[in-house]
Amino acid sequence: MALTAIDIYKLLPKTNCRECGQSTCLAFAMQIAAGKASIDLCPTASEEAKEKLSAAAAPPLPKVTIGAGEREVVLGDETVLFRHEKTFYHPTAIAVSIRDDASEEEFASRLAAIRRLSFERVGQRISVDLVALRCVSGDADRYARAAAAALDATGLPLVLLAPAGPLAAAVEAIAASRPLLAPPPEDLIPAAKLAAERKLPLRVRARGIDGLSVALADARAAGATSLVADPSPETPREAVAVSTNLRRLAILSRYRDLAYPSAFDLGGGFPDPFLAAALLVAKYGSLLVLDSADPADLLPLLTLRQNLFTDPQRPIQVEPGVYPIGAPSGSSPVIITTNFSLTYFTVRGDVEAAKVPAHLLIADVDGMSVLTAWAAGKFTGESISKMLAECGIGEKVTHRTLILPGMVARLSGRIEELSGWRVLVGPQESSALPSYLRRLPPAAFLSVHG
Amino acid sequence: MTLPAGPGGTPVTVGGQNALPLLPEGEHPNAPTVGMEIPTGPLELPAALAGTIGPFAGDPAAMARKCAGDWGARFLFLSLAGCHPDGGGQSVLEGAAVVREVLSATPVPVIVGGCGDEEVDARLFPVVAEAAFRPVFLSYAEEKNHRLVAGAALAYGHGVVSWSPIDINMAKQMNLLLADLGFPPDRVLIDPLTGGLGYGIEYTFSIVERIRLAGLSGDAALARPVLCHLGDAWKAREATDASEETWGDIGARGRRWEETTGLACLAAGADLLVCRHPSSVARLSRAAWR
Fold it and tell me: Does residue A316 lie within any of the structural domains?
């Protein structure tokens, strides 16, 4: 388990020498316990202290990287079982499969389809991370050529699902791209030796926790160090159960022999792969291989992953600015709210539901909701007036009327005084916006010049 | 906890578990249960729903029979949105008549949802509570209206859905307020507010996990079954916008959007799911493990 500040303090020299930048050894210990400082800053720490602290600081679930450069995929390196305890760091990696026995034309069009599985959401790009190349031909040369072609066409790191022979041929061709070696269980030892020799990550597949503890030990004995564990479940239910158990063993029990990122091949005949994939995104799957390249499957899965792997302590923010809803004109209403993503989406959805074109002003309040931002002094008469003057809305509309969230009605006087805009107090809840907007008389937005 | 059924119907029993969801550990005497929403008032259905539930618009009783029959819904969530001034403006008496029609049409358990307009709901719930000739659940009681809703439910032997806006402290507070009124805890469901996939599902996911963990570790005020209404999934542009061809077939995409929202809720620990697409009933029931 993680050491407390007092545990750490006992290991320090207790000289309060201040060399580390802290005023006392106890303050330094508290910084280390919070993960904000490293023992390396202490010039007089004993070897024993350094060893104990670095062992305690090592993540309970080791980090495994696949691929290189900007498409590098990181698995594992998680510290908690529930996202509300801290956050999840490394999103479930999603690989879409392709068969090496496809005709040249089919192969190219499948790769093109995989490349298209990339979508823009809330200012982020969400994409399939890897291509899983299934060796069906059994032909080593063909497989190696297919690996090179897949890498070339997509730029994505590969999962090489192949027996030892073709695996070695493909590694020869594309080792520099750092693929994940994924041999069948019977070829574990030669593949583990290859992984050790080439310093590549290896997926170890065996039946359940018991099978894995043997197979992972075999892989380690063969010299492979960067391992991913596939418990090869037969049903979605078994997959969720074993995925949870593996993660608990790593995080709660610190059971190093089984503490590896997990992988699940949901292709082939796996029953109900979509259902299993969604549950494994929520419940500790580190890498999923899917046969579907249908965007109607991948967009919801990638969105779920994007949602669950956001840091719950740092709300997603929307870019501040002026957002057109519908096709607003110079006489459309101007509505202001804050840049907390959930606030933005709720208000946006409700304005869209009203079917009244409008200009939505999103104020920069560091991603807080309206009331929180007001309480924190970030959503004030001053800041709103400043935004009205600087965001360019004055050129987009001919009127000078602002709809303010009902929760902060008290700001209206100050805004009118500072900005010269007239303020209409909107509803307390965004859900009442549709009826509010529909009932506004058009005279509310008459041109100030006309 | 049991949602009672009419004569000849099958009640829905949920809760009673002493471990986290989806895992073969502890006791899970009752599987999560999937029901369907019966809408009222004018409907603007997205493409993925229009073909299936569209033909039942304006006939809640026929839809109730279809949901409980062919579509396999184990309970119904009758939304009286038709009583909202902007949603058709039915009178509260018309709303109560719809409740009686639906209760006569099928014996499955029913949850009756208000229209969302504070002033109308204040008149609607007492009338509905009286009109419902067998026990139902009223949805929902929140901080502002809980005396009224719980009072109406108590007077006629109904249950209530206790609502809070993605806030575990409010969820707890609501249940304490209901307990102060002498409301029996075995007739209370928690609705934590369910965000749609892509639009806040992560908040619901974490709140449901926290409610469940708190309940399991002995916080009696949070040890209640959780109801997730998946309706917000259908507000997402990704579920309804047919013009984005690179997002895949709109029919499949809309269904997947609701299904994925529901799977996240099940993974977090929801006991009851309310969905809109008939296929979601079967799909989500496949992950409703005991």
Answer: no
- The boundaries of the domain holding residue A77 are 63-308
Query: Please, which residues have CB within 8 angstroms of residue B271's CB and are 6 or more apart in sequence?
Result: B14, B15, B30, B32, B33, B189, B225, B226, B227
Looking at beta carbons, which residues of chain A come within 8 Å of B252? 294, 296-297
The predicted-structure confidence for A259-313, as pLDDT tens digits, reads as follows 999 999 999 999 999 999 999 999 999 999 999 999 999 999 999 999 999 988 7
pTM of the model: 0.87
A192 pLDDT band, cuts 50/70/90, is very high
In a domain, A272, yes or no: yes
Whether residues A32 and A127 fall in one domain: no
**Per-residue pLDDT tens for A62-96?**
999 999 999 999 999 998 999 999 999 999 999 99
Among the candidates A282, A308, A334, a domain finishes at A308
Yes or no: say if A339 and A323 are a contact pair by the CB < 8 Å rule.
Answer: no
- CA torsion sign for A187, A193, A194, A200 is positive
Q: Using a CB-CB distance cutoff of 8 angstroms, which residues of chain B are in contact with residue A83?
A: 202, 205-206, 209
| Residues A70 and A129 reside in one and the same domain | yes
Nearest CA in chain B to A241: B23
Q: Do B248 and A244 touch (CB under 8 A)?
A: no
A209 and A233 housed in the same domain: yes
* Coil/strand/helix, residue A202: strand
Q: Write down which residue in A308, A334, A361 finishes a domain.
A: A308
Alpha-carbon distance of B46 to B42, in angstroms, equals 13
In a domain, residue A263? The reply is yes
| Statement to judge: residues A299 and A337 lie in one domain | no
Cβ-nearest to B246 among A83, A295, A303 = A295
Q: What 8-state DSSP symbol labels residue B183?
A: -
Query: Is 3.20.20.20 the CATH number for B2-285?
Result: yes
Q: Is the dihedral of CA A388, A392, A393, A397 positive or negative?
A: positive
Residue A450 in this model has a pLDDT that exceeds 60: no
Are A213 and A348 members of one domain?
no
Q: Does residue A295 share a domain with residue A149?
A: yes
| Contact by Cβ (8 Å): A414, A331 | no
Q: What pLDDT is recorded for position A1?
A: 47
Structural domain count, chain A: 3
Q: Nearest to residue A75, comparing CAs of A274, A241, A206, A230?
A: A230
- Cα–Cα nearest to A361, from A329, A415, A323, A392: A323
